[in-house]
């Protein structure tokens, strides 16, 4: 008994204090294999998104130059060239990968939804990303009013999701964070606008944004942006435009109000038409699109070619050069009513079923509207009217006023116009909401989820 009393007591465990807890957290954060796999998937996919942005940019320039060369040989060749390339794009999508169709943003939003988990393995694949890239370039090369900014959102989300899946990342929250980060990195790589990529992801792609996804998204945007900057440098999409109101007077106030009302109204009408196109209406035009897709796409291409001939080629393509010309103060009478004609080719391009985006064309259309409105307000700088039109139509079409503001400010380096641009964006978004109650991309995503639910119910009803 005495010997037991003389035995030294067992060593006590050190108290579990805050320092010990922090040590364990740091070891998990830096040494955890699971976290390293997530980071590896994010880093790899972000770099690949930057490469995809370079391919889209260089490819779109090449096919656009090819179309201009064909048009220079003879404008009448466009009557065969544009319909043929539209048919080729439809054939590629329907034959190789039907899930690669669409503009790209609505597919990504639908895949982000928890109800769209089954859609991810069909839409967010490397095969869909590759076909999307080729089909988009075919549509741009045809002379259609398409941009690659929407498709690169789809490609970016597909890359992050597919690489995450390859690394055995099965967590629902992590998968959604990767998809969101991929979409944001796509916008940043396409426009060289990192802040706009983040704002677009928060405002448009994911209304229920989770703060824990912010770090993932920021890293993806930075890495993809660095890749594009390494190739093209730190450029502004439309160049540096030192534009501002000379003074705040009656015409300047009228300019903001008129641009917000007109561009917001046209944006809302366009969104309403595009939602009707996506919904598969029973109208005979949409029935022809379903039953005779190649003939219908060729007819839309022919109509676009006819409009292009009537405008001496101004309405062909994305419209980047025309918008840049207007921002630099150029463009004479030949640019009058350019916004209306470009809007017609945009609707026809989307109606054809050819895959392609609408972000850059919407800015071009807005530039045309701003130019037309500015002709009746001589005291307002024409370039300022072009900027207001770009923001107004973008906000009216997408119902994302903050994204429109940031996109235009970053793409043109026009921070001195922030207050007029902000008021125009808010006014245009409000007007658009009165015309079209649903947001364009949200409505298209809901239609995709509804179609998925019907497919699942039909499969469950089969014996």
UniProtKB/TrEMBL annotation:
Compartments where located: Membrane
GO-annotated molecular function: chloride channel activity
One GO cellular component term: chloride channel complex
Membrane topology: Multi-pass membrane protein
Residue intervals passing through the bilayer: 40-58, 70-93, 178-202, 214-233, 253-275, 295-317, 380-397
CDD domains: EriC_like
Swiss-Prot/TrEMBL keywords: Chloride, Chloride channel, Ion channel, Ion transport, Membrane, Transmembrane, Transmembrane helix, Transport
Name of the protein described by the UniProt record: Chloride channel protein
Species this protein is from: Microvirgula aerodenitrificans
Source lineage: Bacteria, Pseudomonadati, Pseudomonadota, Betaproteobacteria, Neisseriales
